[in-house]
Amino acid sequence: MKTRLQRLLPLVWAIALFGVILLLMVTKVLPRSYQQMLPTICTYIIMAVSLNLVVGFLGDLSLGHAAFYAIGAYVGGMILRYMTAIPFGLRMIVAIVAAAVVAFGVGAAFLYLVRKLRGDYLAIVTLAFGEFVRSIVKIIPGTGGSAGLTDIPTIAAGAFPAKYIKAFSWSYLVMILCIFFIVNLIRSRHGRAIMAVRDNAIAAASVGINVSRCRIVTFAIAALFAGIAGVLYAANTAAVNPADFDYNVSIEVLVMVVLGGMGNIGGSIIATIILVALPKILLDAAQYRLLIYAVALIAMMMLNANPRFVSFKRRVGEKLGAKFKSLRKGRA
Amino acid sequence: MVMLETKNLGISFGGLRAVDEFNLTVNKGQLYGLIGPNGAGKTTVFNLLTGVYAPTSGGFFLEGQSLAGKSPLEINRSGIARTFQNIRLFKDMSVIDNVKVGLHNAARYSLFEGLLMLPRYAAEEAALEKRARELLRVFDLDGEREYLASNLPYGKQRKLEIARALATSPKLLLLDEPAAGMNPNETAELMETIRFVRDEFDMTILLIEHDMKLVSGICEQVTVLNFGTTLAQGETSAVLSDPKVVRAYLGE
Ligand SMILES: Nc1ncnc2c1ncn2[C@@H]1O[C@H](COP(=O)(O)OP(=O)(O)O)[C@@H](O)[C@H]1O
Ligand SMILES: [Mg+2]
To answer: Which of residues 3-22 of A touch B (CB under 8 A)?
Structure first.
């Protein structure tokens, strides 16, 4: 078992990375458009890592993660917009806490109601729930209806690059805290219980795990973090609209989780960075497109000639295949 | 002292009477065998005793406490742990984590203490680690503790299931065909381990087994099931030489 100190080591790396990115921002080595993208990446990383908790660690398929993102964005957005008596920094914290609490509550209540469902059935219900939340939001007073909530005070204030530095710092700090908590959860006895339920619910119950409660709490915790991501979204975009949270968002995040590897937090993070940044990078690198293709092709050929990579790929493939199969069967 | 007592325990699946009028008394510290041909209802008895199925008639008692109709969770917490005929390990988890899941309720730290890695989390996790490794050592699995459970050979998977069940500190351990798929050497070794567990952990064990050598070697008493009904019951050597039992096994 790793000592607590060893477990804190990634935190040291995270701080170092923060320093490096800040330096790139201050010196404007990182172009404006990329600086602008950083909070989005942080937000999506929280989304992917928290969805991984449900899909990868608990083994339940959710197609409605955007519902909790929306709840967080609206709760947070409304607090930021209307509670102007509180200074901005404190208001952000209030917004995050409130969004976390509401998303947790709604997530717990939702899964409590559908706790008997698993596999495809649960997936369909989560999909419906996502659309349900989107339409409910429109009729709640103060949300701006279908036009959306506008004029939300944003984190990014001031001149370039100071405003992006501020937006990034907030987002990064919140993201690191979220990842820290999720990783700690997984490494605790509760995290082992979650994975036990995924691998074999009957056996988990036979050794004294409350399967039903475990699923409800895990789903609610994932919802909580999606809610926090929602606040970041609201605080970075200045406007939230019901259309921002349709099922495409849930699917997009699910793709990040699947690509990064189910039950693999680091994978979720890397897949998210690539998927959010790639379209932009490819667009900017249009004149190098052919060069990039060639390099990618050669790299693929070299990797595929490497037996270690091939066996790695096979293992990942088998694991994913098995996961998908058991997800579809609903993990009896 | 009576550990387990069943009274006219029975269950029907539709028209099929899988277990009927099942009466059994297992004393504390006993090694008790449950045998019978395939489909006799042995596993169903275990499923009744662990809450997987609720009995449609009769009841059962652990140290006098009625447990019929309770959930698997409640029954485990009351002191019954089991293994499964078709192995049910947490296959994508490490060997030691499988045992630590069994120790889940042995630790008391809360979700928040875990999230924040507070001192109580660290202390209790260290204790779990120590306990899990002690259990693994009993089954000679400590060397493989970081393997994925699904990568263990079959015989060791069966042992790991016993270790995981023991981790919940049960009063009564139910083993469903622990020697299935093992070669004679492994079976002999398993017999030693089961005896060791009984003596060392002061355990009461009820086991289902096909291997007659194992049953006659370690069980003091046996019950023979056939088509859901009790065919014979009593001291092992007497029961096994009972012509009724011999006939049921040889199928006349
Ligand atoms: N859930 C169930 N539904 C219907 N029939 C069942 C169920 N579980 C067991 N049975 C039936 O009960 C009988 C006893 O099965 P089982 O207890 O597994 O036998 P054994 O373990 O002695 O080989 C079999 O005929 C089996 O088909
Ligand atoms: Mg059986």
So the answer is: 4, 7
Beta-carbon separation of A189 and B109 below 8 A: yes
Residue type, A35: Q
The average pLDDT across B69-89 equals 95
Backbone dihedral angles phi then psi of residue B85, each to the nearest 5 degrees: -60, -50
For residues B98 and B90, the answer to whether their CB atoms sit within 8 Å is yes
The CA distance from B251 to A147, in Å, is 78
Domain boundaries, chain A: 10-281
CA-closest residue to ligand 1 atom 18: B43
Q: Do A200 and B109 count as a contact with CB atoms less than 8 A apart?
A: no
pLDDT band with cut points at 50, 70 and 90 for residue B45: very high
Q: Which residues of A touch B93 (CB under 8 A)?
A: 192, 195-196, 199
Distance (Å) from the C-alpha of residue B94 to the closest C-alpha of chain A?
A: 10
What are the beta bridge partners of residue B172?
B80, B204
Name the 3-class secondary structure at B242.
coil
Global pTM reads: 0.88
Query: Which tens digits make up the pLDDT trace of A210-259?
Result: 999 999 999 999 999 999 999 999 999 989 999 999 988 998 899 889 88
Count how many pairs of residues, chain A against chain B, have C-beta atoms within 8 Å.
104
Tokens of A161: 């690059």
A10-281 CATH choice from 3.40.50, 1.10.3470, 3.10.450, 1.10.10:
1.10.3470
- Find, in chain B, the residue whose alpha carbon is nearest to that of A210: B73
